Amino acid sequence: MSMNNNHKLLLLTFVIYRLIVTVGLTLFPSELLSLGLKGKLSMEVESSSKDFGMLNQGEAVAVLHPAGSAEDVARLVRTAYESGFAVSARGHGHSINGQAMIKEKKLKGVVIEMGKGGDNNNIRVCEEEMYVDAWGGELWIEVLNATLEYGLAPMSWTDYLYLSVGGTLSNAGISGQTFNHGPQITNVHQLDVVTGKGELLRCSEEQNSELFHGVLGGLGQFGVITRVRIALEPAPHRVRWIRVLYSNFSTFTKDQEFLISLHEKPASQKFDYVEGSVIVDEGLINNWRSSFFSPSNPVKFISLNVDGGALYCLEITKNYNQENGDSIDEEIKVLLKKLDFIPTSVFTTDLPYVDFLDRVHKAELKLRSKGLWDVPHPWLNLFVPKSRIDDFDKGVFKGILGNKTSGPILIYPMNKSKWDQRSSVVTPEEEVFYLVSFLRSALDGETLEYLNNQNHQILRFCNDAKINVKQYLPHYTTQQQWMDHFGDKWTQFFHRKMQFDPHCILATGQQIFQFHPSSIATNITNYHHII
Ligand SMILES: Cc1cc2nc3c(=O)[nH]c(=O)nc-3n(C[C@H](O)[C@H](O)[C@H](O)COP(=O)(O)OP(=O)(O)OC[C@H]3O[C@@H](n4cnc5c(N)ncnc54)[C@H](O)[C@@H]3O)c2cc1C
Ligand SMILES: *[C@@H]1O[C@H](CO)[C@@H](O)[C@H](O)[C@H]1NC(C)=O
Ligand SMILES: *[C@@H]1O[C@H](CO)[C@@H](O)[C@H](O)[C@H]1NC(C)=O
Ligand SMILES: *[C@@H]1O[C@H](CO)[C@@H](O)[C@H](O)[C@H]1NC(C)=O
Ligand SMILES: *[C@@H]1O[C@H](CO)[C@@H](O)[C@H](O)[C@H]1NC(C)=O
Ligand SMILES: *[C@@H]1O[C@H](CO)[C@@H](O)[C@H](O)[C@H]1NC(C)=O
Where do transmembrane segments lie in this chain (predicted)? Predict the structure, then answer.
């Protein structure tokens, strides 16, 4: 064959191939309809195209409601793998930057709406072995509700329970219990995962362990979590919830670090939950965590001798039930004696365990009623190494922040020893690091711009001052930034991606890997399915 003929053949192949691709992609949703799904495939993408951040708009072409069927998820992902379109699992859409979205039309992507639907058999409690099996799209509030029937509960939480199990485990899942029990990802026995090749695999420390560790904190990159086995403990009945104030930052952090260092002590000698927050404005009165202080607990700023600087609030709890109810006052007294807070600033509440865990939902209902919930949330979450937290305070809380915060700012430390280094999650290099969360709402465009600018300023400050922070719930847009984020862990993360989602079809909204339809399309055999 002459060069010329070779050329023509190539051209012809190309034309036919384009035709196949075009026809294939146009046919695409109807092709999906023939998959024999248990759940429902819908073109109504509107509600799946939004998230809590309200900063992005999704561009999915279809939504799958698998109704608790892992087989549905596997079929869809297998087709996507073979045909070359993107798939994103969506938990409860509580991401900030479109992480669960299909961001570009050209990806021809399908969102799997993991929540909503299915029957009530998606949560099964095993009393003897103290674990619960839950569908990956289940909300933590539902898991709690189900386990409480048996007097049991998971141990490690997030502040807010209307988040999906699969969504928080794709990040870490942290709260005031993390210092004691580790993040939620350290309290998982086993997972069922549909990989990016459409295989449904069971995994644990013993079985498919690379997938197991990869998926935990894996930002949805290696598979869709369809079932989770979570460790349980006997559920406490009530909670003593205490807040105390500090005006001296180093005293505040010294006390927080002391409290988390008690993690190996018996339960009677430590608190069950350690968090904290920064108050630089009238946030005490105005923000969504404020109900604590009023009306029965009014805080008088003047009486606290605040000279225009920040106040720091330590938040701790102690769980109890009938058995240890008598000793709890004494246990708390002993612990508080070791702390150095402003003596007149102790605020105490006592409530059922469920009400404590579900506390943010109460605030949500209040904000919703005022139309203050469905607004843009330019949130920023950082892990700050302990050795630089003082510099962070000076530069950010006492510097960049000014006196208008537009929402709560959380700060609490944790110890890396409770984090399994084999997971995909990234933390700073030091043993102890702080979570600092700027959980702010923008009620108008001007505020949104102001807060976005301030977030950039904070990140620039850390960079200039060489404070090696790591973003939690990270948001980056270039692979170089992601490589910097993962640091030493990048090679492993990349290899896991090539192993479990080689066509890069999963969770493209994270913007870590480039989806390459062309690289798949060169393999014509993949299109036999479509035509
Ligand atoms: C009010 C509020 C309070 C919060 N408090 C805390 C807190 O205290 N601690 C904390 O750690 N976080 C907290 N978060 C953040 C929360 O953990 C993240 O938003 C997380 O993404 C879970 O939300 P989601 O279930 O809606 O997941 P989505 O936003 O829907 O998804 C997040 C990512 O995970 C992927 N994903 C979702 N489901 C699956 C699955 N089944 N399998 C594989 N990948 C999946 C998605 O594709 C996406 O990339 C809070 C968020 C809000 C809005
Ligand atoms: C918890 O379960 C009970 C019944 O078991 C149900 O009535 C209630 O609505 C559930 N609550 C939530 C928040 O799901
Ligand atoms: C805070 O406390 C530390 C030690 O407890 C002390 O050295 C420092 O001067 C205090 N800072 C202020 C502003 O009072
Ligand atoms: C962190 O945990 C390890 C292991 O329990 C412990 O040795 C270390 O002292 C802890 N660090 C702090 C600062 O509490
Ligand atoms: C907040 O800061 C602004 C500008 O720095 C200042 O004008 C204002 O007085 C401050 N308000 C309070 C309550 O401190
Ligand atoms: C093409 O796809 C088929 C089926 O998915 C696979 O078996 C084959 O290895 C692929 N070939 C190349 C060169 O990627």
Answer: 9-28
